[in-house]
Amino acid sequence: MRIIAGTARSLPLKTIEGKDTRPTTDKTKETLFNVMQFDVPGAYFLDLFAGSGQIGLEALSRGAAYAVFVENSRKAASCIEDNIHFTKFDKVSRLMMTDAVTAVRTLEGKYKFDIVFMDPPYNKELEKEVLITLSDSDILKDDTLIVVEASNDTDFDYLTELGYEIVKEKIYKTNKHVFIKRA
Fold first, then answer.
1. Which end of the chain is more exposed for a tag (fewer CB within 10 A), N or C?
2. Hey, what CATH class is 51-182 in?
3. For the chain, domain boundaries
4. Where are the transmembrane segments (predicted)?
5. Per-residue pLDDT tens listing for the chain (183 residues)
């Protein structure tokens, strides 16, 4: 696993041993950042369920102004911390070791994010819980882009009642990226 573009291009990243995380493949990551390419430069980026931190680090490498990484696994948080130091993004990032909902509530009044990315464990409806919390949070701007990585069978029918709309969807073999904005 590596950073694929930008100032930290080609730097290898540590990953977590075991099956607790699913690192995003380079091809999927490239597709994701092609969709977000004009949103990333200068952005405040929130990486929820950050795993190894590769998505937030890729955003920083591609010109995001600041990234907050949220991970509740001690082993994964340690990996993120190592990757932040290795890529020299210490001054433009923050790591929070907590769950995503608590992090959103803690960040209120402190940050306004341009992009929120989340890659929660599949089929546990954790993305729904976070989207509900975000729906009345002040960490979103009017045009914040929320990206959820989910299994292909994850249902997002509830988005309209929370005040969101799907602006784009990228479907891969086993998962998808759902691009969401406030309606």
1. C
2. alpha beta
3. 51-182
4. none
5. 889 999 999 898 998 876 556 677 888 999 999 999 999 999 999 999 999 999 999 999 999 999 999 999 999 999 999 999 999 999 999 999 999 999 999 999 999 999 999 999 999 999 999 999 999 999 999 999 999 999 999 999 999 999 999 999 999 998 999 999 999
